## 1
Amino acid sequence: MALDLLKMRYFAKIAELGSFTRASSELGVAQPALSLHIRALEEQLGVQLLTRTPRGVVATEAGVTLLSHAQAILRALDQAEAATKEQAKYPTGDVSLGILSSICPILSIPVIEECARRFPKIRLTVSEGDSQTLRTAVDTRVHDLAVTLDNVAKPASAPLFDERLYVVGPSGHFAPDAALTVEEALGLPLILPTRRHGIRILLERQALIFGRDLNIVREIEGVASTKAAIRAGLGLTILGRGAVHTDEESRTLTAAALTHPDLARRFVLDMPVNHPPTRAVIEVRKILLSVVGKLGAAGHWTCRPPNLSEVT
C-alpha cells in the first residue's frame, strides 16, 4: 500500500520540531488527530517511528530513515507546486503562429510586441504563407495557431473578421474614397497571383457571373513584389484592406473599394484538432484576438467581425 503523503507531512513536521504540541500549532491540526495519524503510519510500516521523552519526541532509527526520504519527497512536491503556480502566472513554452502573407506585416508585429511584454518566457515564432501552406501546417501541427481564409480552413475554425477588397494602384491613381464596381475592375490591367490563390479564384468566379474575361497583364506571386510592380507602373491589383492600409497612409499606393457587389474575404483562426492547447498557446490566442479587434477599430482593415467570443 502506498504511503499517505498527508501522514508523511505530519510525521516530518513532528520529527523536525520534536514536539506534537508545536507541530499541532504550525499545522493547524488538533494534537489527538496527529497522534492518530502517526499511529496509523507506524502500523502500516510495522515499525515505531517516534519515541516520547521528557523533552519532547525524537525519531527512532527507522524514523530517521523515513524522515530523510519524506523530506526529499515533500521538498520535490513543494517545488512542483511552486513551478506549476509560476507556470500559471508566467506561462512558458514554444508557440508557432502562422499568418496569411498579405496581413502578416501589420498583424504580426503588435502580437509579437504584446506577447514579449506580457509573457517574456513564451517563445513565439511567426511565419507567413499562403492559405494552403497554412492549412497543411495546422494539419501537421507545425503551427499551433493560424490566421487564414475560411475557404481552406477546417469547418471547426473560428471566424475572426471579414476584410473588404480594393483595387490598388500607384500613388495618385485613385482619389480618396474612390470606388469601382466589380465589373469595371475586371477590365483593368491586373497583376494577379496564380490560380491557386483565393483572390484570383474569387475574381474568376465574378468574371463568369458577368460573362467577362479577366484582363491579367502579369502574374506575380507575393504581395511585396506585386506592390513594387504597381509602383513601377506595370498594372493594378486587387488586395484586402489590411495589405494596403499603411501604403495609403504613406501615399505610396492608392486604393478604390470594390462595390456592386461588395467583395470581401473572411479570415478565420485555425487550430489543430484533438490537440488541447497549452497555456502558452491560450495566452497567445487571447493576445491575437485583442490585436485583431484593435487593428480593425483603427482602420487597418474594414471588418465586420463575427462574434469574437466564439474563439475565447
## 2
Amino acid sequence: MECTVRWTGLSGMTFLAETGSGHVVAMDGAPDGGGRNLAPRPMEMVLAGTGGCTAYDVVLILRKSGQDIRGCDVTLSSERAEKDPKVFTKIHFHFLVRGRNLKSNLVERAIKLSHEKYCSASIMLEKTAEMTHSFDILDDLTEPSTA
C-alpha cells in the first residue's frame, strides 16, 4: 500500500493525499496553525479511516452470519493527549446497526471480532487509546428494494 501526500503551496497548510488506488483526499490545518479549514485535519482522517475500517468489518461479518443488515453507522468520539505527540488516548465507538430481525449477540460478536482481529486501524490505535464500544439495533420494517 502506498500514498503520496503533497503540500499544495506556500500559503496555508492544505495537503492532497493520493492513495495507491488512485483516489485523492484533501487535508487542511486549523486556522490557528496556518490552515484555512478547507478540509478535514489529518487526525480527523485517522479517526474517519478507523470508523470506515470497523464498519466495513461489521457489515461483512453480519452478512456472512446470515443477518439481514441494511445499514451501519458508527460514531467515534475521541480524546487526545494534551502534549505532543497528541495521540488518541480514548476512543468510543457507537454503532447503530439497522436490519430485519438482527440478533443482538451476533452484532456484539461482529463488533468484537472487528476490534480484536480484523480492523487494523483500531488495533493500532489501541496501543495508545482506551477503546470502548456500544451499539443500538434499529429494526428496519421496510421491504427490500426490488430495483
## 3
Amino acid sequence: MFDIATLIQDYSSNPVNNYEMKDFDISYQEGNPVCGDGINVFLKIENNKIKEFSFTGDTSMITTTAVSLLAEEIQGIDLQEILAWDLDFMREELGMQVSSRRNRAVLLGLLATRNAIHKYINDGKIDDFDDLGLDD
C-alpha cells in the first residue's frame, strides 16, 4: 500500500539531486511568499533536453519531496515538454491530491525550472503559479 507520509519523510531526509551544480548552463531562483520557501535550480542542457538537474534551497518537506520527484523525471526530457508540465503533472508524480494551501509548495521546483528554461531559450516569458494551473 502507498504511504505518502513515508514518501515525504524519505525524500525530505534524502533528497534527489540536492546540490549546487558547478558547470550548469542556466540557473534560476524562485520563492514562495506564502510559506517562505526558496529554491535555486541548476540545469545542464544538451540538444534541447535536460542533461542534468540539481537544486538547493531552504524548502519545506513537501517542496523537497516534489522537487526530488521532479529530479527523477526530468533528465532526458525535451524543454518544450517540460514547459507544458503543470499542477496536474506534479500531482500525478506525487500520487495524491494535496491541500490547496500546499499546491504552491508542490509547484515551486517546477516553476523555477520552467523559468530557467524560459531564460535559457530567451523567449521573454516568466511564468507564475497561475501559469502552472494554480487558481487560488
## 4
Amino acid sequence: MISILKRSLLYILAIVLLLFTGYPFIYMISTALKSQPQFYEAPFSLFTSFNLENVQLVFEMGLTRYFTNSVLITVLSVLAVMLFASMASYPLSRMKFKFRGVVYLLFIAGMMLPIHATLIPIFKLTQSMGLYDSLWALLGPYIAFSLPISVFILTQFMAEIPKSLEEAAELDGASHFSIFGRVILPMVTPALMTVLIYNFIHLWNEFVFALVLISTSERMTLPLGLQNFKGEFSVNIPGLMTALTLASIPVLLIYLFSQEKVTTGLAGGAVKE
C-alpha cells in the first residue's frame, strides 16, 4: 500500500513538472499560429486559430540567412571544441608530466573568467586581425570559452577508464595516437555527446559576442536577427514566437539524437569490468 502511494505521488509530481516545463513551449507554438489581432484579442488562449502567415513573414524578414549563419558557426565551433578538448583531456587524464596539475587548473580557471570582462580586448583584437563583422570573428571566442567546461567533463570521464585497456593496446604495439583514436575516444562517447549537447545549446543561443562583433544584417546569427521583430513602438509577438519555434527545432533534434547515444554509452559502460 505504501509503495503504491509513493508511486502515485511520483507520477503526480512528474505530471506537475511536465505541465510546468511544457506549458511555455505549448504557449509559444499556439501564439505562433495566431495573427497579431487574434493575439491581442485572446493572448492566453491555446490553439484557437491556425494561421501560417507568420511562417512566410519570418522567412521574408531574413530568417533563412540568420538560420544558416547560426548553423555554420555553431557546428564548426562545436566540432572544433570536441576535437581540441578531447586532445587536451587525453594527456591530462592518462599521462604523467611536469606541471600537469597547473595546466589543468589553467583550463578550469577559464570557467571563472567573466565573458563581459573580455569583450573590449576581443573587440580590439578582432579589429586588428581584420575579422570584425564576419562569422569567423565568432569562431575564436566561441571555441575558447567552450573549452574549459569541455576539458573538465572529458578529463574526468577519461580518468575513469581502466589502465589495463591502454596497457593491452601498448603491448600490441599501438602508439599514443592509435590508443587515443581507437580505444579512448569510443569509450568516452557519452561524455562527447554531453559536450556536444551542452555547447550546441549554449552557442546556438549566444548573443553577447554576436552583438559586439557583428554589425551587418547579412552576417547576423539567429539570436541577433530576432531583434528585427521588435519595432520602435511595438513587437510582433506572433512573428517572434514563430521564429523562436523554428529556431528551437535544431536544438531539440540534437538533444533527441544525442540523448540516445549518451544513454546507450552509459549503460554499456556500467557493465564493463
